[in-house]
Amino acid sequence: MQKNWLLVVAVLLVLAVFVLAGCTSSTSPDVYNSNQQEGIWVTGNGKVAAVPDIANLSLGIEAQETSVTEAQNEAAITMDRVMTALKSGGIADKDIQTQYFSIQQVTRWDRDKEKEITIGYRVTNMVTAKIRDITKTGSIIDAVAEAGGDLTRIDNISFSIDDPSQYRNEARDKAVVDAKTKAEHLATLNGVKLGKPIYISESVYYPVYRPPTKVEEAAPVTPISPGELEISLDVQIVYAILE
User: Fold this and answer.
1) In what order do the strands lie in the sheet with 96-110?
2) d(CA 25, CA 23)
3) Last residue of some domain: 160, 175, 210?
4) Longest dimension (CA), the chain
5) The domain containing residue 147 runs over which residues?
6) Per residue in 88-115, is it b (16+ CB within 10 Å) or e — as a string?
7) Rounded distance, CA 177 to CA 234, Å?
8) What's the whole-model pTM score?
């Protein structure tokens, strides 16, 4: 009698497990799909124009001689003069960083010997200099060119903002307003009421434009125009739909 009772209990437990498993598998997908499909999804954009206050200059020297020692010595002496010019222009040591240094063998094809022959060695030393007083950019370029002479190399110049947080906040405010305006319009078109945001994400696009540098030979100082930067920010917001 006791064995029969235990058997009945075991059968009931097995049936209960199957029932619970069936309920779980049938309800989970509905909850998942509901969360993924509900709400009004919009993307808002905000843009702010800002005047750069930092100039980033990539510059250096390139020396070539018949031996490594000669090329390296010439490069070291000339680069020392360039560094002095940078510091005299008010650029701090922390704002000067070595970007590239190399010693390369220079060769040419010898037709008689039918092989490459070494004709010298080239030493290149490039640094990046952050100019915090942007009005001095032109005069610093001129000072570097004079200090480096024919060995001077200036790769490029770019402009940035030291602390863009204020402009990003302004762009964010505009982006949120833009998103809400779109969501309210969508809600009105579809005859529903707009609820609170249930999801928010942000992405920032911060381009650094490199406007063309205008150089006039007769000008006493090389003129540099930093122009404007545009800080753009997107927000994606999902609003709940009220019944």
Assistant:
1) 96-110, 115-131, 54-65, 152-160
2) 6
3) 160
4) 116
5) 54-160
6) ebebeeebbeeeeeeeeeeeeeeeeeee
7) 11
8) 0.68
- Tell me the CATH number at 101: 3.30.70.2970
Residue finishing a domain among 119, 141, 160: 160
CB count, 10 Å around CB of 34?
A: 9
Long-range contacts of 196-201 (CB under 8 A, 24+ apart): 196/239, 196/240, 197/237, 197/238, 197/239, 197/240, 198/39, 198/238, 198/239, 198/240, 199/39, 199/236, 199/237, 199/238, 200/235, 200/236, 200/237, 200/238, 201/235, 201/236
| Residue 43 covered by a domain | yes
Has residue 34 got a pLDDT over 80? no
- How far, in Å, CA of 15 to CA of 3, rounded? 19
Structure tokens at 101: 């240094």
- Alpha-carbon span 231 to 205, nearest angstrom: 7
Check whether residue 155 and residue 170 sit in a common domain. Answer: no
- Position 19 pLDDT exceeds 70: no
